[in-house]
Amino acid sequence: MSDQQDILLQVTGVAKTFGGLKAVDDVTLALRAGIVTTLVGPNGAGKTTLFNLITGQLVPDRGEVVWLGNSIVRLPQWKIARLGIGRTFQDLKLFSHMTVEENVTTVTERGSWLWQPGGAAAKAARRSSVEAALEATGLKDKRHARAIDLAFAERKFLSLARVMASGARLWLLDEPASGLDPGSYERFLSLLRNSVRGGVTICIIEHNLDIVQGISDRIAFLDQGRLLAEGEPKTILSDPALAAIYFGERAA
Ligand SMILES: Nc1ncnc2c1ncn2[C@@H]1O[C@H](COP(=O)(O)OP(=O)(O)OP(=O)(O)O)[C@@H](O)[C@H]1O
Ligand SMILES: [Mg+2]
Q1: Which of 17, 47, 207, 223 most suits a substitution to test ligand 1, by most atoms within 8 Å of the C-beta?
Q2: Which residues surround ligand 2, an ion (CB under 5 A)?
């Protein structure tokens, strides 16, 4: 496979300013198929904003976002989602008063009509993708519980179940493991590894360096809106200048 064919999503020269603040400043980054790319960087580095620019929550001031060779800049969010780009949110955005099963089912509904494309076969496929996601995330027994009544880790797994059931080919995960206990994050890591083996591509925002080390094929390091480095985990994680920025020891 050539380098170009390998790329699922290409972000080129993307920028977003809020007032005078350069939240994302001329970022160029390729997400390669079938691997895990981790976005790391201090709070406020622009990681979530970069996700928002990819998924259409925000439109870049300039720059390009190309999915499988086609520009997706300025497409509405729902169209970008249907192309196969799924995401989770830092604040989860679950439907609190819906059940676990209903939360997951929402991503498989293609419209509000009783009749949906594909008929009975498509309906059965949607059902089985919900079941598979509940099974993989360990939420089967909680299917009738409301999201608001779940424990913290269960809520995190529910947000993951939603992206799993969507059938998205690229998963953008915004701190999906933050606050998990070590037992849960082992389960979480093996779930991600299995998903990548199954053909999914992942871009994950993560602060916990054990998890970063455990899951990443590539690491992209953002700081103050700029992509400072991108490369192999061992190169990025052993760079003393990046470590100084990450741990807040930046020179004034
Ligand atoms: N909608 C917005 N309006 C104004 N400023 C924003 C908006 N969204 C983000 N920002 C600012 O842009 C900068 C980048 O924010 P962003 O949320 O992308 O950072 P982050 O890297 O995800 O940080 P964290 O690790 O804390 O989640 C921050 O200074 C933030 O306050
Ligand atoms: Mg963020």
Answers
A1: 47
A2: 47-48, 90
**CATH fold of 1-84+168-252, please?**
Rossmann fold (3.40.50)
- Pocket-forming residues, ligand 1, beta carbon under 6 Å: 18, 21, 23, 41, 43-49, 90
Q: Is 34 exposed, middle or buried (0-12, 13-18, 19+ CB in 10 A)?
A: middle
Domain regions of the chain by residue span = 1-84+168-252, 95-166
Q: Are 22 and 44 in contact (CB under 8 A)?
A: no
Closest residue CA from atom 31 of ligand 1: 44
Name the region of 81 (left: φ>0; alpha: ψ -120 to 50; beta: rest): alpha
Give the Cα separation of 19 and 110 in Å (integer).
Answer: 37
pTM beyond cutoff 0.90? yes
Local mean pLDDT, 10-residue blocks, the chain (252 residues)? 75 97 98 97 97 98 97 96 96 97 88 64 87 97 98 97 96 95 90 96 95 95 97 94 82 48
